[in-house]
Amino acid sequence: MSLLVTVTGRDAPGVTAGLMDVLSAHGASVLDVEQVVVHGRLLLGVVIAGDGDGTAVRADLAGAADRLGVDVEFAVLSD
User: What predicted TM-score, i.e. pTM, was given to this entire model?
Assistant: First the structure.
């Protein structure tokens, strides 16, 4: 399964690190990453690969995003 994770919101210290910690805890492989901050607004795109359908990692990323005050969207990519 390959998944595009898109994060948007106000940038703050620890946002990217907190989300990457979730990916690490799930053993997800980061295939590509792009991060841009414009006038304090974060746009983070991460393509990950992992086992299964990604339900657990999506749930944990959504929880982390909520705690960090950012929005997250997911798109399953064809392999």
Answer: 0.93
Other beta carbons within 10 Å of 49? 14
CATH fold label, 2-77:
Alpha-Beta Plaits (3.30.70)
Pairing of strands 41-49, 2-10: antiparallel
- Average pLDDT score over residue span 37-54: 94
* Contact of 46 with 29, CB cutoff 8 Å: no
**H or E segment to which residue 76 belongs:** strand 70-77
* Extents of the domains making up the chain: 2-77
Helix (H) or strand (E) holding 43: strand 41-49
